[in-house]
């Protein structure tokens, strides 16, 4: 699992050869690309349909369907992902159901409750697949690595490495799909926040970027102290309403903490790669990297605690140092 996570992380980083100014951004409830875009496309929405060729594609949404050629790479996260056309580079996709019906030029990394390589599909190099139910009906030139509850191999592969997980099929599929959809929901929430409140989002990001260690310490202390306070309040009838209110605020902070940490990590990654990433792309890159790291056994849990602590600390520091941007101008 560690090896797979590291490979997936390296694949993601290799998907960043393009600067942000060349990015075409599209968003809305329903996004349809009907004219060719000789550029890199970032699309987010409920339903995303690509019916014309694009340079490369980064997509996040409920339903994503690609019916036209993608010259470069595809990164997609959504409830239902269907690739019906050819991709010149790599494919990294995570969703409830993921279906590949076209040709992939290099590598494919796919995860979902249901993952299918159709009979017309092919992968030029290696494919790494994890999910509840996996079906290979295509041709993988290199190594096909599969980790799933069930696997049906109706196609071909250069070499095959299969690890079947023995657990209740319904429970496993439900948890897998729920986890994927929850992660996609967090991704969409982060994109929405950047869209509607970019300045406030940047205030928090700058705080945790300026002093990650201070943010981590402040966040961890606040989490421990907050938990103790909630327990004390909850055991008294008088303090129960306040405990519920503070618990809701704390839950919101925990939910948002990894989003701010993702954006900061993505921007730092762009700096290492000497790429000027836009807010959307930086957040997406950091979000995917963090969620891959969270899946590393044992170490992933500690990384999650660190990310939550840093994000929570960034929120607290932003409220303390930038009360006007966060809460509005002071009353006169």
Brief account:
By secondary structure, the protein is an alpha/beta fold. It has eight helices and eleven strands.
- Portion of residues in beta strands equals 25-35%
Terminal residue distance: 57 Å
**What Rg, in angstroms, do the CA atoms define?**
21 Å
Query: What fraction, in percent, of the residue positions are helical?
Result: 40-55%
Number of strands: 11
Question: How many structural domains?
Answer: 2
Give descriptors for this structure.
332 residues; alpha/beta; 2 domains; 11-stranded parallel sheet; 8 helices; 32% strand; globular; disordered N terminus
What does it look like?
The protein folds into 2 domains: 2-170, no CATH class; 198-327, no CATH class. It starts with a helix and ends in a 5-residue tail after the last helix. The model is unreliable at 1-21 (pLDDT under 50). The protein has 332 residues and is an alpha/beta fold. Strands 1, 2, 3, 4, 5, 6, 7, 8, 9, 10 and 11 form an 11-stranded parallel sheet that branches. The protein has 8 helices and 11 strands. The longest helix is centred in the C-terminal third of the chain and has 33 residues, at 240-272. Helix 3 (198-210) packs across helix 7 (299-321). The chain has helices at 2-13, 169-196, 198-210, 212-234, 240-272, 279-293, 299-321, 323-327, and strands at 23-33, 37-50, 54-66, 74-83, 91-100, 103-104, 108-117, 122-123, 127-136, 139-153, 156-164. 46% of the residues lie in helices and 32% in strands.
């Amino acid at each position: 699992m560690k090896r797979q996570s590291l490979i997936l992380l390296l694949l993601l980083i290799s998907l960043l050869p393009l600067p942000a100014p060349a990015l075409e951004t599209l968003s809305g409830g329903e996004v349809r690309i009907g004219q060719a875009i000789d550029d890199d496309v970032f699309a987010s929405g409920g339903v995303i349909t690509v019916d014309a060729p694009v340079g490369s594609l980064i997509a996040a949404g409920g339903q994503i369907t690609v019916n036209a050629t993608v010259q470069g790479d595809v990164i997609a996260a959504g409830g239902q992902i269907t690739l019906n056309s050819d991709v010149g580079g790599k494919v990294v996709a995570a969703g409830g159901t993921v279906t590949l019906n076209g040709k992939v030029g290099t590598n494919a990394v796919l995860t979902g409750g249901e993952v299918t390589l159709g009979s017309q599909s092919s992968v030029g190099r290696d494919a790494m697949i994890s999910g509840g139910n996996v079906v290979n009906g295509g041709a993988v030139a290199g190594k096909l690595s599969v980790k799933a509850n069930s696997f049906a191999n109706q196609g071909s592969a250069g070499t095959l490495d299969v690890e079947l997980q023995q657990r209740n099929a319904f429970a496993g599929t439900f948890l897998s799909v729920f986890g994927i959809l929850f992660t996609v929901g967090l991704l969409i929430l982060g994109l929405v926040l950047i869209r509607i409140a970019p300045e406030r989002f940047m205030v928090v990001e700058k705080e945790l970027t300026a002093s990650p260690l201070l943010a981590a310490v402040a966040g961890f202390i606040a989490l421990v102290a907050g938990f103790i306070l909630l327990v004390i309040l909850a055991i008294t009838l008088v303090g129960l309403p306040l405990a519920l209110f503070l618990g809701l605020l704390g839950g919101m902070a925990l939910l948002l903490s990894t989003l701010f940490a993702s954006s900061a990590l993505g921007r730092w990654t762009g700096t290492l790669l000497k790429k000027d990433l836009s807010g959307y792309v930086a957040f997406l890159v950091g979000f995917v990297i963090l969620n891959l790291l969270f899946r590393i056994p044992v170490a992933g849990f500690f990384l999650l605690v660190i990310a939550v602590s840093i994000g929570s600390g960034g929120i607290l520091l932003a409220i303390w140092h930038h009360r006007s941007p966060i809460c509005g101008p002071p009353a006169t």
